[in-house]
Amino acid sequence: MAAKRKIDRPVSGGAVLRERVTAAITDAALGELADVGYARMSMEAVARRAGVGKAALYRRWPSKQAMITELVRSKITETLPHIPATGDLHSDLRGLLAAYHSHLANPLVALIGADLLAESRRDSTLADMLQTEVAAPRRQAARCVLQGAIDHGELPPTLDLKLATDLLIAPLAFRTLILDERSDDEYLETLTAATLAALKAAVRQP
Amino acid sequence: MAAKRKIDRPVSGGAVLRERVTAAITDAALGELADVGYARMSMEAVARRAGVGKAALYRRWPSKQAMITELVRSKITETLPHIPATGDLHSDLRGLLAAYHSHLANPLVALIGADLLAESRRDSTLADMLQTEVAAPRRQAARCVLQGAIDHGELPPTLDLKLATDLLIAPLAFRTLILDERSDDEYLETLTAATLAALKAAVRQP
Amino acid sequence: MAAKRKIDRPVSGGAVLRERVTAAITDAALGELADVGYARMSMEAVARRAGVGKAALYRRWPSKQAMITELVRSKITETLPHIPATGDLHSDLRGLLAAYHSHLANPLVALIGADLLAESRRDSTLADMLQTEVAAPRRQAARCVLQGAIDHGELPPTLDLKLATDLLIAPLAFRTLILDERSDDEYLETLTAATLAALKAAVRQP
Amino acid sequence: MAAKRKIDRPVSGGAVLRERVTAAITDAALGELADVGYARMSMEAVARRAGVGKAALYRRWPSKQAMITELVRSKITETLPHIPATGDLHSDLRGLLAAYHSHLANPLVALIGADLLAESRRDSTLADMLQTEVAAPRRQAARCVLQGAIDHGELPPTLDLKLATDLLIAPLAFRTLILDERSDDEYLETLTAATLAALKAAVRQP
DNA sequence: TTCTAATCGAGACGGTACGTCCCGTCTTGCC
DNA sequence: GGCAAGACGGGACGTACCGTCTCGATTAGAA
After folding, report:
1. pLDDT tens by residue, D63-91
2. What structural domains does chain D harbor?
């Protein structure tokens, strides 16, 4: 998913970024990212670890920033879990939380997530990427489940969708990304019940 | 709050870190922090801005990391809001959320919070500090309110305290620190209602 | 002779380029120069060899070019030999040639001289430096001896001074710098005689 | 004169270095040489200028060094002037100096000569090439004229041939290659006279 | 009041990383 | 197999900070 340049045929002959090198760099970069974190990661170290010249990195990405952004985006989105929609609110909710949980449990997501969120305050490109590639799909899935429940009469039509979405995602994300604590099945079960109750009360006040 | 060394009796001579210098550095550092952010802040720039030699910084803190950590810690804790305990669960809850909100609305907290949380994954000293200095007092306040409600019979004794604490803090923290969105009074009001409902359902399943 | 900055007292305290570091760099640079030549010399190698950071080099000289120029200038001029002037043309001539010879026999001069002359075609700063610091004094010495001989009637007043100067310096310089051959006493003796004869004939044609 | 490989019968197929490409490279290289000089010339620039792949260069020469050396060698030798031998020492001498002069006046010789001489101190292959291809023919011509003069009795049989050769070539070479100054007819005329006198005195001392 | 030792501003020190350029080699697909 | 294009590993460029160290000059507590 990396290397975007040089994919269309040049006049003749020409050289193309080599797959194996791209793979080696990607592996090395993700490894470094996990080892030392976003801020302390150095391009030189990545190149060294990949057994590659620095130029090979800069041929693929214009900067350290861009490389990490792209790498993480593809890693995160490729692990985006499927979200079910059975129609029953409680089981949909449970499914949604299970999907979030399994995604957040990915070691890379947990390790890098906090770094990215911190960095995204300063880098609007990164912020936009996270918004459209990561947050939007989740929000969409949540909204889908909520709308279904409203249509079935399980949730009131006065539901504050914005707040409801926050309520759905926040506790698990907060616990995993910020408190760095694991959540077991029992936790998820109780959380589902509590979230269900919260949603029913999340209506705009008269 | 800075300068920890040299506080006990020197052998002789005048050799105490000077207050004015410490203050100048602190101001400059917070200024830089606000201007360029955690990652891009340089000690050189802080020293330059404070009109101070770099050594004056390293005489006070062992590293850039430590300096920022300590500055932010003191800024964060000094703004820790008072938390009321009237006995009425709904109004206590509202008060608690208002207190969290006003604290998180502090620009410095919002700016630096995410950085510190990210960094704390790799720096257990920082993690411990945040845990004891920031998280613990909040958790304690929450627990206090919750226990009162249980004693008054407003919440069931089977309440999962761990989960309940997460439910109390997570939505607001997530929204502010991670989504970087403001919350108005109306939002807080609805959130209070929803949280109240969630808490009542946050009991361990039979 | 290196380090020209920071020699006058700043407002207070301040830091000064350290003598030992300058010496280490100078040695290392001259060593590299002798080993790999002007063109192939690298600042990194010099820094490595001197056990010094690259910044220490760039604190002293603005560029590789400038460093080499200055270093060589000082090395060459510091070995500039004393030139006698007895009044007797033959012995003055012999002395002059001996002085040139001993200077050109300096291994560094011999090794670097050709590099510098080549480079000076492209670098007018270097060319000017060589002209004023190296060539001019020699030319002056030669002119002095020649003028004395004219005054004594040993050389005709119609002597072409420009040509005569070339005749004095060229054979030895050419032989040493370009042919890279040594010259012994016997050679110098014969050369003196031949040069004397040449000078007497070096008059502008009628 | 370039391309030495693949000049004899290829086994099959069309696999001979193409003349047009060689010519384009040669032109481009000489152009770059003139534009930016020996040291700053880059193979990439030559390839670009010739509209040619870098491989085409390295198929013909093993290195930048080798390419320049060979190009310049061929340019220098192809401009080697004819040297007359009338029997009259003065006019032969004048002819010799005129030939040297016209050769050295070739802009390429002047531009590259000093570089090559400098480089030849560290590259014995280059030194040998210059010796056999450039210096030897000139020395031979000089020796020829000198021997003729000895045979005719115009020069003493005790003439120091080595020194005499130096005396013949040095002033002009020095002036052109090192001082980078032009020489006009009048200069050459006077130089001839002076050189003639010098030669007559260039006998080994008793 | 004098002594005296640690602090001060300034910035040099050995390092590491940045992103760029070129070297000489290697790879790809067209002719 | 030569060719144009250009990716490859390597290494140097000159800059910016890191955290440490070195200067005199300043300053304030102990004598």
Report:
1. 888 888 888 888 777 766 666 667 789 99
2. 19-60 (1.10.10), 76-201 (1.10.357.10)
